[in-house]
Amino acid sequence: MKADPKDQQRLLDLQAIDITLQQLAHRRRTMPETAELDALTKVVSRLEDERVRAEVDVDDLDRDITRLEREVDTVRQRRAKDQQRLDDGRLPARELTALEHEMTSLSRRQSELEDAELELMEKRETAQSALDAVDERIASARDTRIATEQRRDQTVAELDKEAQWKRTARGPLAADLPAELVQLYDKIREQSGGLAAALVQYGRCGGCRLELFGADRNRVKTAAPDEVVRCEECRRIMVRTAESGL
């Protein structure tokens, strides 16, 4: 392929833009905020699971406390009725004795229930504290996630803005070069991972960095200035200038 030496050198400008675009795309894909957000999402999910368990503990204790409160109330009502019957003073001696025994038993039962209720209320306070702590951690993680999302969005906007500026500069440059040369360049760039044209410096290919020797060096050195020369090793376009050292 033939191409004006100046057009070949301008390929390096095109290559510089494409390298920058490739770097910007890589930075966009590998932003630290992305990994941070993934980690925060897992943290929030784990905390929400922990919160469900803590909430179940509180609900279970509330249910048990309510049950005990009903039992205590039932015992109190029974004792009040028995006390009223005692106060009436019209019971036979045998029934009076039985009633006194029952009231003693009810008093003991009420005390046991109230102790159990108090113990459950203490456990409930501990469980509520655990639930409140989880809620605080969830709120903190969510705040951190929001702040990280904002940083990510700002970084993305800056990278996209720079990439758009580079694409805007690339269009006229590529359009001003011979179409066949650009097609070859784009094909090599796709096959070689992004680098298609490289400057020959000090007798080395700027693509694979290998030094040219013998017949290969002579091939490049003696090629016509408008000949598009490619590296035998990496197949990239070798752009020759006064710095090539041939």
Number of individual domains: 2
Instruction: Name the structural class.
Output: mainly alpha
Rg over C-alpha atoms, rounded to the nearest angstrom: 42 Å
End-to-end span in angstroms?
Answer: 21 Å
Number of helices: 5
Roughly what percent helix? over 70%
CATH fold-level topology of the largest domain: Helix Hairpins
CATH architecture of the largest domain: Orthogonal Bundle
CATH class of the largest domain: Mainly Alpha
Return the string of H and E elements: HHHHEHEE
Beta-strand fraction estimate: under 5%
Number of strands: 3
- The low-confidence runs, each spanning 5 or more residues with pLDDT under 50, are none
Q: What multimeric state do the chains show?
A: single chain
Q: Taking all residues together, what is the mean pLDDT?
A: 94
